[in-house]
Structures are given as C-alpha cells and as structure tokens.
Amino acid sequence: MSVRVFVAANAREGLARVRRELGDDAVVLSTRPHPQGVELLASAYGELAVPAISETPDTAGSSRILNELARLRGMLQNQLAGFAWGAGRRRDPVRVALMQTLFAAGFGSALARTLAARLPRGLDTEATQHWLRQVLIRNLPLQGRDADLLARGGRYALVGSTGSGKTTTLAKLAARGVDAHGAGAVALVAADAYRIGAAAQLTVYADLLGVSLHVAEDLDKLAQLLPHLAAKKLVLIDTAGFAPNDPRTREGQALDALGVRRLAVISAAQQGAAIEQAMTRFGQGAAACILTKLDETPQPGAALDSLIRHRLPLAYISGGQRVPEDLHAPNATYLIDRALKGGQLDTPYALEAEDWPLFAGVEAERAERRTQKGTSVG
Ligand SMILES: Nc1nc2c(ncn2[C@@H]2O[C@H](COP(=O)(O)OP(=O)(O)OP(=O)(O)O)[C@@H](O)[C@H]2O)c(=O)[nH]1
Ligand SMILES: [Mg+2]
C-alpha cells in the first residue's frame, strides 16, 4: 500500500485533488493543519481492498472490512467538511453567515450556495443581510397585476395534492369572480369523481354565491361540457387531490388540451421535500401557483425557495379557512420578511452553533452524491 501526501489550501480542495489523482474511491488516512492550509495522507482504495480480498477467501469477512472502510471514509469526509466549514467561516464569515440565515429560514442548499457564490465582495454583515433580502424579493416570481386571472377571466382548473386547499381556494376565487363579473358570468365545475362528498362541498359554495354548478366525472365529460359554458367569463374547475407520485396526476396535463389553464394549489405548511415534489408534479406547465395555509406555516422559506427555483408565478396566497376573506394578492416584501423572520424562531429544529460543522458534513456528502449522479448521467 503506498501512501501519498497532499497539501492544499483547504480540505475541499485537498479532497478534490485526492480524488483526481487517486480516484473516487481513494481513502483519506489522516488530515492535519499545514502552514499552507491542510495536509492529507491518502491512498488509492484498490491498493487497500485488493490484498484483503485475495488473502482471505472469507467473503463475508472481506465485505465487513469493505463496509468498515466505507464507514471510516464517510467519517473522515464529515470531519473534513466540518473542518472546511470552520476554515470557511474564518476566511469569509459574511458569506457563511448568509448561508446560515438561509438554512435557518428553511431555504435549501442549492439556492443558498447559488446566492453565496453571487454575494458581492467587501460587504459587511449588515449590508449582506440587506443584499440578501433584496435579492430574494427581486427573485420571488409574482403574477403581475396586468395578468390578474380573475379580471381577465378564462377556464382554470385547480390542481394539487390531497387536502392542499383546492376546493376552499376555488370558492374564494369564485366569490371574487362574482364581485368582478356578476354571478351569471361565473360557473363552477366539480371534476372530482374520486372523493365521496366532493361535489356536495362545492354545491354549498355554489348556492351561497348564486353561481351555476356542473359535474364532469371524467375528461371526456368535461370536454363535452366546456362548449356549453362558452358564454361564461370565468369557469373554475375543482379537481381531485392526488399524491404527487400518483400516476393520475398526468390528467392535469390533459386539461391543457381542453384549453383549461392549471393553477397549482400548494400548501406551504409541508416539509421542503413534499413542497418540491408537489411543485414539480403540479407546477410544471401550470399558469400560476397559489400558496395555501400560510397561517399554519411558521417557516415559509421552503415554499418560497421552491417558487424561486421553479420560476412559477405566485398568483395568490391563502392564510386561513374563511371564504372569501382569507385570499390575498402576494406581496414579495411581506413574504420574504416573514420567511427570514421564521429563521429566528427558537424551535427544537433550529441548529445550534456546534451543529453547523456536522450539518456542513451532511451537506457536503449530499452535494458529492449529486455530483457523482451528474457525472454518471453525463
Ligand atoms: N388553516 C388553513 N386551512 C385551510 C386553508 N385552505 C384550506 N384550508 C383547510 O384545509 C382543509 C382542506 O381543504 P380543501 O379545500 O377541502 O382541500 P382540497 O385540496 O380540496 O382537498 P381534496 O379535495 O380532499 O384533495 C379544509 O379544512 C380547509 O378549511 C388555509 O389557507 N389555511
Ligand atoms: Mg377538494
């Protein structure tokens, strides 16, 4: 087994050189500070693994050794990432503080890294926080007033995960539509053929508003119904809620062929991964997004992060169950300020100072997996 010494400016650079020169499976045996940054002792993985396998016929034993090596490698990587985090904090405290602000508020690492990389040099902590707030406000995609869905009218289907608030939001939109165009110009369509009582829920709202209600059990029926509603200024279609990975979500795309524009109704009160899934499945090709349950969302950062990355315009926000009061046009400043404030909440999920290096380790591993996946795909 030959061991090589690498000296680099920082741990991340050192690891990258080890990989470049000894391969992806290289094993880092030790690290220590060096006047030029960090010194790593590393060996090619094959040189460790081959003798172990050939010398012992006990394959179970060999795989135990391999597992143990993998575990040690993971541990070292974590430590190095933590070390890199500490070094980064000393070298560029303002940039690291920016990422901490974003992570604490529930924004994800992809956006945090992108913004940290674009932070102009030479800003102090206060100027950095100001810059961050402005960048987030500027990049939050909002539906422009001239594109107001209700004023323009049209055919809209509300799509989204189960219980995200589609029917309630539809009733709120319908009430606004009645205010704008009169009850005779608005029609509701119940296209939720899956849930018992779905049409009944809509009937109550239609009666209250004095608008007509139609039922379409499937897409064919909807295609037959729509020409009869051609005179209506605003047609709002309620659809069944599906989990984002349910194959029936494809029905959403079939609506496009009928000239129906989709509005993705997404609850902000979910964990980031669920929001991302819903945004991907229901948001793709949608005309706009409506974020619901903001009243139940202490940290709306994840939802705003997803909107920013998907560039899906936000048309309305919903902050309660009351029909029609709890529906509002979005205000970027208000939403971003709320998200950043959410990062200051004292919850058991907030990271303590000593958790950050560990968190950095996990993040570094995740980033590495993404890079490896990208490399193997490309
Ligand atoms: N707190 C709060 N509750 C909401 C909001 N929007 C909807 N809800 C509630 O969430 C629950 C589900 O709302 P629905 O409108 O039935 O949701 P849905 O997406 O139509 O549900 P399915 O048709 O079953 O997929 C109801 O109790 C609503 O009152 C909101 O903005 N805030
Ligand atoms: Mg519903």
Supply database-style keywords.
378 residues; alpha/beta; Rossmann fold; 2 domains; eight-stranded mixed sheet; three-stranded antiparallel sheet; 15 helices; binds guanosine-5'-triphosphate; binds magnesium ion
According to CATH, what is the topology of the largest domain? Rossmann fold
Oligomeric composition of the shown chains:
single chain
**DSSP helix fraction:** 40-55%
* Largest sheet: number of strands, sense, barrel closure: 8 strands, mixed
Give me the CATH architecture of the largest domain, please: 3-Layer(aba) Sandwich
Structural class: alpha/beta
Q: Number of helix segments?
A: 15
- What is the 3D form? elongated
Number of strands: 11
Condensed summary:
This protein is α/β, with parallel strands linked by helices and 378 residues long. Helix content is 51%, strand content 16%.
Explained architecture:
This protein has 378 residues and is an alpha/beta fold. The protein has 2 domains: 1-91, no CATH class; 145-342, P-loop containing nucleotide triphosphate hydrolases (Rossmann fold), CATH 3.40.50. 51% of the residues lie in helices and 16% in strands. The protein has 15 helices and 11 strands. The protein has an 8-stranded mixed sheet with strand order 6-5-7-4-8-9-10-11, with helices on both faces. Strands 1-3-2 form a 3-stranded antiparallel sheet. Helix 3 crosses helix 15 (356-377), helix 8 (166-181) runs parallel beside helix 9 and helix 12 runs parallel beside helix 13. The chain is elongated and about 80 Å long. Residues 48-55 have low confidence and may be disordered. Bound molecules: guanosine-5'-triphosphate and magnesium ion. Guanosine-5'-triphosphate (GTP) binds at residues 160, 162-168, 192, 195, 198, 241, 292-293, 295-296, 318-321, 326.
